[in-house]
Every structure is written in C-alpha cells, then in structure tokens.
Amino acid sequence: MDLSAIGATMLSILVVAIVILLILAALVYTGRITQKGPHGRRPR
Questions:
Q1: Does the predicted TM-score (pTM) go above 0.85?
Q2: How would you class 2 by CB atoms within 10 Å of its CB: exposed for 0-12, middle for 13-18, buried for 19 or more?
C-alpha cells in the first residue's frame, strides 16, 4: 500500500526481467558459438 513497497516490487520485477533477458542472450550467444565451434557438441 505504501509507495516504497510499490517501488520495491517494481524494482524487483525489473531486476527479474533483466536477468531473464541476460540469460536468454547468453543462451543464444553460447548456442551460436557451439554451432560455429569445431566440436559438434550441443548446448544443454
């Protein structure tokens, strides 16, 4: 109900969204590296 609580929840949601975007970008980046790599290993 307090503005501080609302701000904290919005900040936590933003942090979670940023972390998810970073993880997705890292997965895509590693996927591209493994595809270009000499070894035919598939990313987990």
A1: no
A2: exposed
**CB count, 10 Å around CB of 43?**
11
C-alpha closest to that of 43 among 33, 20, 21: 33
Residues 4-42 as b/e (b if ≥16 CB within 10 A, e otherwise) read eeeeeeeeeeeeeeeeeeeeeeeeeeeeeeeeeeeeeee
Residue pLDDT, tens place only, 30-40 = 887 666 656 65
CB 32 within 8 A of CB 41: no
